[in-house]
Amino acid sequence: MNKVLLLTKIMLKNAGSSLGSKKGSGWKTLLILLAIGVGLIPLMAALVVFVAGLYDGLAQIGQEGALLGLGIAGTSLAIFLLGIVYVLSVFYFSQDVEHFLPMPIAPGEILGAKFLVALLYEYLTALTMIAPIFITYGVKSGGGFLYYLFALLVFVALPVIPLTLAILLVMVFMRYTNIGKYKDRFRLLGGLIAIAGGLGFQAFVQRQTSGTDSSVEQLQQMIAAGEQGLLGIVTKLFPASKLGALAILESSTWSGFANLLGFFAIAVAGLLLFLWVGNRLYFSGVMGISESRAKRKKIDEATFQKGIRPRPMWLAYADKEWKVLWRTPAFFMNCALSSIFFPLFGLVPLLSRQDSAELLASLSGWLQGGHMGGISLVVAFSAFVVMASTNSTSITAITREGQGIFLSKTLPIPAGQLLVAKLIPGTLLSVISMALLVAEAAWFIQLPSLFIILAVVVGIPGILFVNLLGLILDMQMPKLEWGSEQEAVKQNLNPLFSMLMGMVTAALCIVLAFSLEASLLQMGVGLFVLFVLADLFLFRLLLRKGPSWLEKMEG
Q: Quick one: which of 539, 551, 379 has its CA closest to 459?
């Protein structure tokens, strides 16, 4: 056990250098943590208000217990989906296993340490999602000591079950996608299939619990059956969630203690299954993950001349950045993939419902209402901005250079053109996200052509604004000391700041839209002018100050 904890500490220490390990960086770390806390306050406050209102509504029909079940099931689903990405990063793309194997460490100890690292990440997810629900429910219901004790124990075991499911799913795919010279390609394919499998699981469960007349009748019957009726419906998403919710609800009885033991028993069983499967599948799937084969083929003179044709320096460097982004598994999973998958995530809860046609028709009517034109445009603009802020490409453009930053400074390319080239991949990926979202809306909601054109026209300056801010921020706080590509993009706080900036920008625009009540065209012109001016200011700042910022960086 001591070796497991020591390995976990080493992995976390290697992953935690983004907080600053250099002498005199303590104040910067404190400011970063303070900024994160301040940025999360509005989100937590909004969640508490929402939960309190939901509690009051459910309490009127005696179904407030369903709130705990919904919170535990929803958190479990989020941990499962995010766990797929965490597992790929921690277990496979960190590339540290081959360093541990020659050491006097048992395979189970390596597995245990990696599980603890992934579990700690998931605790942060669970804390932001379920803690406000537990606390708000406890305050509203007047919960006593046993309520909070049982809630704490359920929180401790909560991430274990969905995380073990995610690990097992990923291990199976990664074990059987280790195919010769196409190893990297098939590993990426395995990761994509694992994520698609998680989304498919969510869609299947949701489709079984939504929408039809029979399900409505079932809902009515379960509500009439008593307080636990609605709880049984919402916990179908993750059946083990019902035990956790009942344990907290009945914390003052022996029945609650029995449910708590059952919840922990499932978590322990999942952990044992993970260790058993991991010892058989993990190491054979991870061995040689850093190796690859080059493709060798002869090219003729015409192909060679085409490959060395002269191009603008900024375009050639942008092309290099683009290829590295797509060919490096960690960069692809954490930067490029989000631009493709995030626009598709919104379709899952809609299309997986059996009443999706009615919901889409209602949404179309609401968006196209005469008084909602300007607000609808701002909502679309905000969605583009938030999606762009979740893309880590620009916010890690300098960080991804690592200690090789000195090489970029020696290239025969002006610093301004180099920075423009680094801005292009992230902006292009954000535009792809916007195009996918617009295509989905145009197909399913059938929005008018004018709305679509205006949304794209105002969306591009908003996307550029987020990417410019991200690149400038990364130049101010680059994380150049990293041991693996996964550490550079996943264990880095800069993307979190990008998300906060995107959410704040979107929130301010929405508040402004409701305050002004402008028409569709007026809102479009206003957003376009505002963000074009902001982009011009940031772009000039980047070209003026960027070269000197770049010169001061040391790998």
A: 379
Judge whether 203 and 346 are in contact, CB under 8 Å.
no
Dig out the tokens for 434 from the structure: 């916007």
- DSSP character string of 157-183: HTTHHHHHHHHHHHHHHHHTT--GGGH
Tokens of 401: 């250079």
- Cα–Cα distance between 56 and 54 in angstroms, integer? 5
1 vs 540, residue with greater confidence = 540
The alpha-helical segments, DSSP class H, found in 60-96 are 65-87
Cα gap 185→496, rounded to integer Å: 28
Residue 281, classed as helix, strand or coil, is helix
DSSP 8-class letter at 334: I
CA distance 422 to 474: 11
The secondary structure of the chain in percent helix, strand, coil, rounded to multiples of 5, reads 80, 0, 20
- CA dist 517 and 505 (Å) reads 18
134 close to 151: Cβ distance less than 8 angstroms: yes
Which residue reads 């390990």 in tokens?
21
Closest by Cα among 253, 233, 257, 254 to 244 = 257
Burial class of residue 508 (count of CB atoms within 10 Å of its CB; 0-12, 13-18, 19+): exposed
Q: Cα separation of 539 and 298, whole Å?
A: 43
- 69-73, 215-219, 510-514: range with lowest mean pLDDT: 215-219
Q: Which residue has the higher pLDDT, 223 or 332?
A: 332
In angstroms, the CA 225 to CA 448 distance is 46
Is residue 207 over pLDDT 70?
no
Q: Give CA–CA dist 463/356, Å, rounded.
A: 30
**Phi/psi at 179 (nearest 5 deg)?**
-120, 100
Please give the angle made by the CA atoms of 142, 145 and 148, to the nearest 5 degrees: 80
Q: What is the pLDDT of residues 382-430, one digit of tens each?
A: 889 988 888 889 998 898 888 778 888 788 888 889 999 999 999 999 9
DSSP annotation of 64: T
- Residue holding tokens 């092309």? 319
d(Cα 506, Cα 385) in Å, to the nearest integer? 7
Closest of 362, 342, 336 to residue 444, by C-alpha: 362
Tell me which residue has tokens 């400011």.
Answer: 31
- CA 207 – CA 187 distance, rounded (Å): 30
- For 295, phi and psi rounded to 5 degrees? -85, 125
- Measured CA to CA, the distance from residue 400 to residue 325 in angstroms comes to 9
Place of tokens 């797509």: 326
Q: What value, to the nearest 5°, has the Cα angle with vertex 504 and ends 541 and 56? A: 175
Among 4, 129, 149, CA closest to 68: 129
Half-sphere exposure of 62 (CA within 13 A, CB side): 9
Identify whether the C-beta of residue 14 lies closer than 8 Å to the C-beta of residue 490: no
Work out the angle at residue 494's Cα, subtended by the Cα atoms of residues 10 and 318, and round it to the nearest 5 degrees: 110
